[in-house]
Amino acid sequence: MDIKIKVKEILSNLLKVKIDELKDNSSLEASIGVDSTEMVESVIALEKAFGVKLSPKEITKSSSIEDIEKVIHSKIG
Fold it and tell me: How distant is the alpha carbon of residue 51 from its chain centre?
């Protein structure tokens, strides 16, 4: 499973943006202007999709797709 692609698909569907708008190295806030409510929804969706528990400190508006991928990868091994 490619974690980065799945993260992008989940966030794209949830936040209603095109996958190519989700930049690997840019923060979610900078690349698509995600707000706090959207971040909470995103964390919940990612937890369900990957079967992991994520803390709000691990995934924030300043996180990039690569940051999120690394956190999830560390949780699922």
Answer: 14
* Helices 36-50 and 65-76, axial angle in degrees (round to 10): 30
Name 27's bridge partners: 64
> For 11, which DSSP code?
H
Its pTM stands at 0.91
CATH of 3-76, one of 3.40.50.720, 1.10.1200.10, 1.10.3470.10, 1.20.1730.10: 1.10.1200.10
What band does 75 get if pLDDT is binned at 50, 70 and 90? very high
Only one residue has tokens 């400190």, namely 57
| Extents of the domains making up the chain | 3-76
**Among all chains, which residue has been given the structure tokens 């840019």?**
26
